[in-house]
């Protein structure tokens, strides 16, 4: 379970003991909004920040690993060329069938609640983790300003969005495989937002059981 510091902080900012809470993330890339919508929302960031070690790894990959892979495939590419056209067109058809402008992240309407929430998601913090807290009469989303965050010890998060229960509800199935569990925030205007990568398995299990109860 999340350590006492997390529950203590949650209780303090909610003013009551949380019914359930869980750390989560937007588990897929946020789709690119229309330019005018993004501009009107202040051109906030649409991707999380990354630790510097990730950039070092990317440099090593592109300048060492990729050239080696290309050299390795030069000979094989000639032998496979007769079949390349047919296999490529098949993959293109598969991509067309599976294309989803909203990337299964939200309902797709940037002007509704879920879309507006996404436009400011990483503006509150470059860290991808958010704490969703259920109180007796509202659903709250909290974030820490830190770039790096320990979800079991965080004690500086603050509420960045909250919705009364007549405006938002949480939907998700209990008993989902750990590591793959997701839930949706569904809003009164019909929009929805999906979150995954649920932190702390015991918190996730309790959270999902609670919203099903």
Characterization of the model:
This protein is of the alpha+beta class. It has helices at 4-14, 35-40, 52-98, 113-119, 201-212; strands at residues 20-24, 130-134, 138-143, 158-164, 168-171, 183-187, 192-195. The strands form two sheets. The protein has a four-stranded antiparallel beta sheet with strand order 1-2-3-4. Strand 6 and strand 7 (192-195) form a beta hairpin. Mean pLDDT is 82; it is low at 51-61 and 84-98.
Present the secondary structure layout:
Layout (H helix, E strand, L loop, with lengths): L3 H11 L5 E5 L10 H6 L11 H47 L14 H7 L10 E5 L3 E6 L14 E7 L3 E4 L11 E5 L4 E4 L5 H12 L1
Total count of strands: 7
Order of helices and strands: HEHHHEEEEEEH
User: Largest sheet, described in full?
Assistant: 4 strands, antiparallel
Any low-confidence stretches, pLDDT <50, length ≥5? Answer: 51-61, 84-98
Distance between the termini: 20 Å
The helix content, as a percent range, equals 25-40%
Assembly type of the shown chains?
Answer: single chain
Q: How are the strands of the biggest sheet laid out side by side?
A: 1-2-3-4
Q: Class by helix and strand content?
A: alpha+beta
Shape: globular
**Computed CA radius of gyration, to the nearest angstrom:** 21 Å
Strand residue percentage: 15-25%
Considering the chains and any ligands shown, give keywords for the structure.
alpha+beta, 5 helices, single chain, 213 residues
In short:
The chain has 213 residues and is an alpha+beta fold. It is built from five helices and seven strands.
């Amino acid at each position: 379970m999340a350590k006492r510091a997390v529950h203590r902080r949650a209780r303090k900012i909610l003013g009551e003991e949380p019914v359930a809470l869980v750390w989560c993330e937007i588990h897929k890339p946020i789709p690119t909004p229309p330019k005018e919508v993004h501009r009107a929302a202040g051109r906030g960031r649409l991707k999380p920040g990354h630790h510097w070690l990730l950039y070092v790894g990317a440099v090593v990959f592109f300048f060492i690993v990729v050239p080696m892979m290309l050299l390795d495939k030069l000979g094989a590419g000639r032998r496979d060329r007769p079949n390349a056209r047919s296999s490529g067109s098949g993959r293109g058809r598969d991509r067309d069938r599976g294309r989803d402008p909203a990337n299964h992240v939200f309902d797709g309407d940037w002007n509704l609640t879920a879309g507006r929430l996404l436009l400011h998601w990483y503006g509150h913090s470059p860290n991808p983790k958010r704490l969703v807290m259920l109180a007796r009469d509202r659903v709250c989303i909290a974030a820490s300003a830190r770039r790096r965050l320990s979800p079991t010890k965080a004690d500086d998060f603050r509420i960045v969005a909250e919705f009364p229960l007549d405006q938002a509800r949480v939907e998700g199935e209990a008993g989902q495989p750990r590591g793959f569990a997701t839930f949706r925030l569904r809003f009164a205007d019909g929009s929805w937002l999906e979150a995954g990568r649920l932190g702390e398995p015991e918190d996730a299990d309790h959270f999902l059981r609670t919203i099903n109860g």
